[in-house]
Amino acid sequence: MTDIEFQSRAEIKAFQEGLLADALAYLKANSPYYQRVFANAEADIESIRHIEDLTKLPFTEKKDLQLYNDDFRCCPKEKIIDYITTSGTLGDPVTFGCTEKDLQRLAYNERKSFQCAGLAPGNIVQLMTTLDKRFMAGLAYFLGIRELGASVIRVGNGIPELQWDTIRRLHPDTLMCVPSFILKLLQYAEEHNIDYRGSSVRRIIGIGEGLREQDFSLNLLGRRIKEKWDVDLFATYSSTEMGATFSECEYGLGGHVHPELIIVEIIGEDNQPVPDGEVGEVVVTTLGVEAMPLLRFRTGDMAAKHVEQCCCGRNSYRLSPLVGRKNNMIKLKGTTLYPPAINDVLDNCGYVENYCVVVRTSDAGTDDVVVKISLRMESQQQAIDDVVKELKDSFRSRIRVAPNIEVLPDEELRRTIFPPKSRKPIKFIDTRNH
């Protein structure tokens, strides 16, 4: 059977609309939360026959998941075999349960995503992300690599010495990690005379951070990695709520959707769909989820949908690199920014060891941005004023405006970036009252 991603756009749309009808019927029969939503909205589920008809239904927001978490469950509790949590907008984590069918769906999703990035049986993937702390991603990657028939090395995050020792001993051809960690790996290799260019690694699959601009060229972080290490770079986009991954193919022209797993809408400020190719908020409807399916879930992520056929032959639509998160938009000195643009400048500064971007409301009611950095050992002899001036010049050349800069001891900054209970480094703190 031909993979649905290679069929025509019309066939893909009709296929998704058949799955949408099944998903709506399943929610109506099994979801206490959506039963209330449909009743309150006086929604006629049978009239939702096309993807365009989704606009007749309300959105689901993260706060809904937090306030009515158990009401989203569509199966008996004893069918849940794995519990996952993700961050919530109201402070406490949001819990997701997965049934055996859901874990099989995750494995299928990641297998297709890895295949899209060129992996096959015989490849060896070094996984630099955690499988513990109720984290979905690490588990999904493991299941997908296993389903694909490739080999996986579960090293976990951090510890450059252990990563290089594993590469030397087991010869992986693929690394899967947060892209900015690669810079730390390379720094460690250079400091310890490790021949990373002569290693077995040929491919890096990035998670959690972008590698490309909106025109699909490499961003500063991607270029910096590529200039030092001539490996193939692939970016991915996923989240716990969608239970699906948008992975680049070898042409790097956006993340391909798996039409059997998810429907994507891109909406504008008026909450209506925007034209294809225009940036808006990513809204997803999950397909084939048994425990906690979601309808029109607002991710808060900003991206564009590209519908023309990809060079790889797939006709499934693709998502552009993320522009940022809707709620994290910054208006600095008249310029609209998203945190990834600031991160991109900082990730390209060889003298910055760690950083955190803090946004607050000024006395005048405008956005005020403070970038807190620590310096690498070899740069600590530099005058602080010179560092601040150089970094501000870098910001102005890249994003036209310069935030305030604070230079702190690395130990002090790390306490903010790596709090004990967090699974991810905290590089963005927003104290504004939206």
| Gap from first CA to last CA | 49 Å
Radius of gyration: 22 Å
CATH top level assignment of the largest domain: Alpha Beta
Helical fraction equals 25-40%
Shape: globular
Counting DSSP H or I runs of 4 or more residues, the number of helices is 11
CATH fold field value of the largest domain: Rossmann fold
- Strand order across the biggest sheet? 4-3-5-6-7-8
- What CATH architecture label of the largest domain applies? 3-Layer(aba) Sandwich
The low-confidence parts are none
Whole-number total of structural domains: 2
CATH superfamily of the largest domain: ANL, N-terminal domain
Sheet-strand content, in percent, reads 15-25%
Structural class: alpha/beta
Q: Main β-sheet, in a few words?
A: 6 strands, mixed
Number of β-strand runs? 21
Mean pLDDT value:
91
Please provide a written account of the structure.
This protein has 434 residues and is α/β, with parallel strands linked by helices. It has two domains: 1-324, Rossmann fold; 329-430, ANL, C-terminal domain (GMP Synthetase, Chain A, domain 3, 2-Layer Sandwich). The protein is 31% helix and 23% strand. The protein contains eleven helices and 21 strands. It has helices spanning 9-30, 32-40, 62-67, 100-116, 136-148, 160-170, 179-191, 220-228, 339-347, 384-399, 410-417, and strands spanning 82-86, 94-98, 124-127, 151-154, 174-177, 203-206, 232-239, 244-247, 255-256, 262-267, 280-286, 297-303, 305-306, 318-319, 324-325, 330-332, 335-337, 352-361, 367-375, 404-407, 428-430. A six-stranded mixed beta sheet has the order 4-3-5-6-7-8, with helices on both faces. Strands 10-11-12-15 form a four-stranded antiparallel beta sheet. It is globular. The model has no long low-confidence stretch (mean pLDDT 91).
